[in-house]
Amino acid sequence: MFVSAAVIFGAFLAFPLEAFPLANRKVSNQSNSLGPLTFRADGTFQISIFEDLHFGENAWDQWGPQQDINSVRVINEILDKESPGLVVLNGDLITGENGFLENSTVYIDQIVNPLVTRDLTWASTYGNHDYDFNISGDAILERERRWRNSRTSPMVSGPDAGVSNYYLPVYGHGCVSEYICRPQLILWFFDSRGGFKYQQKDASGNRVGQPNWVDASVVDWFNQTSRGLTRRYGKVIPSLGFVHIPPFAFYAAQGAGVDPNRQPGIDDDLPLAPQAQGWCRDGRNDGTCTYGAQDTEFMRAISHTEGLIALFSGHDHGDTWCYKWDKLLPSMDVTPANNISLCFGQHTGYGGYGNWERGARQVKVSKKGLVKFEAGTWIRLESGARDGRVKTQDRDDDVG
Ligand SMILES: *[C@@H]1O[C@H](CO)[C@@H](O)[C@H](O)[C@H]1NC(C)=O
Ligand SMILES: *[C@@H]1O[C@H](CO)[C@@H](O)[C@H](O)[C@H]1NC(C)=O
Ligand SMILES: *[C@@H]1O[C@H](CO)[C@@H](O)[C@H](O)[C@H]1NC(C)=O
Ligand SMILES: *[C@@H]1O[C@H](CO)[C@@H](O)[C@H](O)[C@H]1NC(C)=O
Ligand SMILES: *[C@@H]1O[C@H](CO)[C@@H](O)[C@H](O)[C@H]1NC(C)=O
């Protein structure tokens, strides 16, 4: 796994984190006021993934705000049981179609309150429901960044890139400065967009759909940046990825058969909804096509990036399994080269469709397991039970 031994120390010093353009958008001045993410003294690092929270439904009815109270309770109950070093909010934080322009993002304050109370930091990806006529990734980001605990920091500019595309390095225990430490783990966040364009209507007065896949500009950025990190540190740094809408490979894996013993979890959304669903190859989304394949380059990139252990998605509330993508799957032409695990989390919010028990996927890596590019993962349910425990690789590691 080791690339050429040359550690280009000069280049390392010349490219601190800020050198990556923060895109041309208004983010607060707090991007680096948090200390670096670090492993615990015991050599582990844990992530709790809250996804599909769907805050802000029907604010004018009693049941909408009540759902949000219930969702806050879920977050609190899970955090009473788990001790993550980072929380990931993996998309559909808010049900944007119910929002009013003037206050569609205020729900962020409610979502993050349990995290702020515990002094936890978080990182978001935005989902299709976070983009609508009265809400946008940029608007949510603005609200998030009022809290210093937010690590969401867009790194790809451009009109079609979406917002939540960035990476976060995680350093060894005791690291105090990202300028001198070497990352032990890289976390990649991708924006699968979707939903509708902010404050835009077409000639007939309808909302304008936004493509629902990771944009090509982001795939290029990921390819270049991950190779740049490998060069800079002279080795492949293990990594994990997060994206709200699963790419088509999840769909193909489900079609090939999810086995309750080998891929434990719920498999009720059958078939699941992947990126590029409802779009045509020529870019139309007029309801005439089922899948446009625009996520192919993204799938090629994630399945050929050495050291990328797993990709975590939400979106399909009725699916919670993990699948090791280790071969060419039927109806696909991307052959994976890195055995990446494709993992759903668990529907966390009381908003959004479905009544499967609420919960949150946990991911735990150890320095020892990462040497073999392994991570451990399980789901913590609202009831407190622990479910669906799997390793992302077949071999044992010391995690979990
Ligand atoms: C920048 O930081 C200062 C000091 O923490 C704070 O008062 C100010 O509101 C911040 N600016 C923005 C845009 O968040
Ligand atoms: C957007 O917000 C405005 C202002 O509150 C409201 O009047 C309108 O109904 C909302 N539009 C949509 C499509 O939700
Ligand atoms: C948002 O604004 C609408 C319309 O102005 C109002 O009815 C609603 O109570 C507000 N919601 C929140 C959460 O402040
Ligand atoms: C990354 O870019 C290089 C050069 O353009 C290309 O050869 C390679 O296939 C790309 N890799 C991935 C994983 O997309
Ligand atoms: C992927 O897993 C297969 C077995 O499922 C194994 O033969 C192969 O060596 C693995 N490849 C990598 C890159 O780990």
From TrEMBL:
Segments forming domain Calcineurin-like phosphoesterase: 52-232
* Key words, A-Z: Signal
Q: By its UniProt entry, which Gene3D superfamilies does this protein fall under?
A: 3.60.21.10
Q: Which InterPro entries match?
A: Calcineurin-like_PHP, Metallo-depent_PP-like
Any one GO MF annotation of this record: hydrolase activity, acting on ester bonds
The signal sequence is 1-19
On the tree of life, the source organism's domain of life is Eukaryota
Q: Which Pfam families match?
A: Metallophos
Which Gene Ontology CC terms are recorded? cytoplasm
What name goes with this protein?
A: Calcineurin-like phosphoesterase domain-containing protein
Source organism = Xylaria grammica
Q: What is the lineage of its organism?
A: Eukaryota, Fungi, Dikarya, Ascomycota, Pezizomycotina
